[in-house]
Design a protein that fits this description.
Oligomer: single chain
Low-confidence stretches: none
Shape: elongated
Number of domains: 2
Bound molecules: zinc ion
Order of helices and strands: EEEHHH
Strand content: 5-15%
Strand order of the largest sheet: 1-2-3
Distance between the termini: 51 Å
Length: 95
């Protein structure tokens, strides 16, 4: 079993292994975290920090009181990405 440099989008675990391919050739991965609700997932993007979904998660975590470092670690992005995302969000929602 080989641990690859991929993070589970559900639980953030890096205990992820390759798990065959989809019929369309996309690589599937499996999360080895026994508590994870998702387990099987696909990785299509390398620049996850640019994904709207990740940005939404960054904002969600900030609203839940997570620190920048924690957020970056859990989502597998750099603290810089977290900070710039939050800065833009704050500016947009200034009352
Ligand atoms: Zn997982």
């Amino acid at each position: 079993m080989t641990v690859v440099g991929v993070q589970c989008p559900q639980c953030g675990s890096r205990e992820v292994v390759r798990y065959g391919r989809q019929a369309n050739g996309e690589q599937r991965y499996r999360c080895n975290n026994v508590d994870c609700e998702r387990r099987i997932f696909l990785v299509r993007y390398h620049h996850t920090g640019r994904l709207p979904e990740v940005k939404r998660q960054i904002v969600d975590m900030a609203l839940n009181g997570s620190g920048i470092r924690d957020t970056a670690r859990v989502l597998g992005v750099s603290p810089t990405t977290v900070m710039s995302t939050l800065k833009k969000k704050r500016r947009r929602s200034t009352r």
